[in-house]
Amino acid sequence: MDPPQNFDQFSLKRILMNDTQRKMIAVEGNFNGHQEPAVVVIEKYAFDEASVLNVCNAQTKFKKNLENDVYKSFSCVPPYDENISSNKMDIIYPATDKHILKFSSQPLYFVQETEEMYQTITLPHILGSSLSLQWLYNCLEYKSEKERIKYDTASENQKDDEDNGFLLLPDLKWSGKLNELYLLAIIKKRNIKSLRDLTINHLPLLKNILNKGSAAIYKLYGVEQSQLRIYVHYQPSFYHFHVHFTYLMHTPPGINVGKAHLLTTIINNIEMQGNYYQKATLDYTIKESDPLFNRFEEKGILRKAKLIDESNNA
Amino acid sequence: MDPPQNFDQFSLKRILMNDTQRKMIAVEGNFNGHQEPAVVVIEKYAFDEASVLNVCNAQTKFKKNLENDVYKSFSCVPPYDENISSNKMDIIYPATDKHILKFSSQPLYFVQETEEMYQTITLPHILGSSLSLQWLYNCLEYKSEKERIKYDTASENQKDDEDNGFLLLPDLKWSGKLNELYLLAIIKKRNIKSLRDLTINHLPLLKNILNKGSAAIYKLYGVEQSQLRIYVHYQPSFYHFHVHFTYLMHTPPGINVGKAHLLTTIINNIEMQGNYYQKATLDYTIKESDPLFNRFEEKGILRKAKLIDESNNA
């Protein structure tokens, strides 16, 4: 018996696993009424660089999901096969050098950023070169994406909303499927750039995000807090403090140690030492093309290394 | 201008990145001769559980790549679109219960383990049920795997080797390729079960692992410390303190926040507060099938949740 020849007579018993990051699914079932079970594992192939442009052609249907400033997001569906081979396509146009860099693969380095390095290297760099936050202020002021706002602490009429309030928005990367849940909590306060600025004064804000954010997600989507990964990036991709909420069994980019910091750990560290995030040495990965890499290189803190050639064996 | 309407006039400048694990590609190019660059990011959607069987139908072409015992592996290509939407399909037939378990997904939970929960739940569980460490003591005593030992601090004749010494061994998961480098530092001291046992007294041991481990790897493999991810698991897979050294651009399992703790962060935390790892609340993910999950469930700390059904959309 050669199972695929008879695949139209395969009866599906159950889905065993669906890895949404790798785009791999495993199912159990039977061929042609044979009693012994079969496990079938299907994984999408990676894109072939030589034929990437064939993904879109004259027959492809585009459905716009989102448009804000330079960002557009589409579902891109070949007409013959809507369910199976559709792709998500994000377009940034016009794109700046920073956008281009953000999506380029690069040698990576670990840097151990001390308090002093932050003050003398990282902070001046952030102040001198960060991307515009206008798109974000547009959201906070309900000037754009207002239909995308899933939750606003202002709906609860608390007095301290300017200090402790936030909006919950779906992340651009979220497909909309529940088991890939990905929301961002964007704080209303405008003077917290990142983790480094958090002090004991921000504990009410942080606990508000943890508790009200989780409660809102439970109410909206039925996902309990124990099934959420709630974290912050350092360095973040933009310098207005925000918190990532993702479904625990989903594995989006940016959940690795050296990039992601759990909100519960942040609260715990500040409770143990009020100025933890000013004093701590924070370790993170940095790309060689990141202008911040150059600042560290100039000071002799990092130096370029060769990428390992994959064809070499140990 | 609506870029996708004109996608047939898109001219590709270069591939920025091709993530073969996520099946995502980013390219830079221009629309219709416009001078401003655009970044286009295309990612394949995950499989939709409701329509997974449509991946294969009467028109699908199968090419057998491999057959070994119960395993068969195919390329499975829809006839209209060979380059873009083909899938890899592995079939295990007949499949045993173990095959089925191996490919089944398990619910995961985040637990926030306080000092008290460690003392009253986790520690008794570890002491009552940990697996034998005889295989590891055999390594430390050069009774087995001695040809696998890549480095031994004893070679440097330091006086405190019993307290601060360690061996460097390749991890079982290491393929041997340099760009997938994966070594473990196993300490010689026998009374440190995990992160939770580390105090200010262990700083010399931890710094020794960081510095001598990195130096040995540079000497053996030419990989600099800035290109290494050096971390500890909590919970670990065995309760004899050990440290993971992996190549930074490699992404093995177990490098996510909620599981991995950077050695540099551990040293920094203990320097900031000597009893940090006794006092801290440590957050980690736990599988429903882990016996420790049952301990937390009995105490009302965790409760079973339903897995999200992918067919629901937000």
TrEMBL record, chains A, B:
The active site is at residue 242. SUPFAM superfamilies: HIT-like (SSF54197), mRNA decapping enzyme DcpS N-terminal domain (SSF102860). One of its GO terms (molecular function) is RNA 7-methylguanosine cap binding. InterPro entries: DcpS/DCS2, HIT-like_sf, Scavenger_mRNA_decap_enz_N. It is found in: Nucleus. The keyword Iron does not apply. GO terms for biological process: deadenylation-dependent decapping of nuclear-transcribed mRNA; mRNA processing. It catalyses: a 5'-end (N(7)-methyl 5'-triphosphoguanosine)-ribonucleoside in mRNA + H2O = N(7)-methyl-GMP + a 5'-end diphospho-ribonucleoside in mRNA + 2 H(+). GO terms for cellular component: nucleus; P-body. It comes from the Eukaryota. It holds the Pfam family DcpS. Substrate binds at residues 135, 145, 171, 173, 233-244. Keywords: Hydrolase, mRNA processing, Nucleus. The keyword Cytoplasm does not apply. Its EC number is 3.6.1.59. Decapping scavenger enzyme that catalyzes the cleavage of a residual cap structure following the degradation of mRNAs by the 3'->5' exosome-mediated mRNA decay pathway. Belongs to the HIT family. PANTHER family: HISTIDINE TRIAD HIT PROTEIN MEMBER, M7GPPPX DIPHOSPHATASE. This is m7GpppX diphosphatase. It comes from Aphis gossypii (Cotton aphid).
